[in-house]
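Hi V.,

You were right to ask for the full record rather than a summary. Here it is.
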Amino acid sequence: MIEEIFKKGGWQRTTLYTLAALFVALLIFQTGMFTGERRAAFTYGTGAAYYNVFEHPEHGPAQRGFFGDAHGAAGQIISLSLPTFVVKSPDNTEKVILIGDATEIRRFHDAATSTDLAPDDFVVVIGEPNSDAQIDAKLIRILPPPPER
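Predicted structure:
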C-alpha cells in the first residue's frame, strides 16, 4: 500500500509527508517539555532547600535581607558529622559543608585530612552549592583562631 502511495504521488504522498513532519515536530516538542520539566524541578528543589536552610525565620539573617555567598564559607566549625560539618560565620550565618573524595584539606600550607577537622576550628571553604543547599567543598583551609577584639 505504501509503495502505491509513493508511485502515484499526489495528495496521498503529501498527506504522508505532512503526518511524518507533524510526528517529528511533536517529538521535538515533547523532548523540550521533558527537558524544561527536569530543569524546573531542579530549580524548585534548590530553591526550597535554600529557603529551608537560609531563609527560614528561625535562622535570622534573611530577616535582615542578607543571603550570603553560596560558593564558600568562613568561620568556626560548630558541628561535625563527617562527611558534613556546619560552619558559623562571624555574622551568625550557618552553612552545611560537604566533604567529597576530591576535596583538598590544608592546615596552612600543609596537607591535612578530614579527621584533622574538629569542632571550634576556624576554616575557610571554597566550593559549589548543590541541590541540598550544601556547599560541595573543593578546598578547606584550617586556620588559627582570629585575634580577640
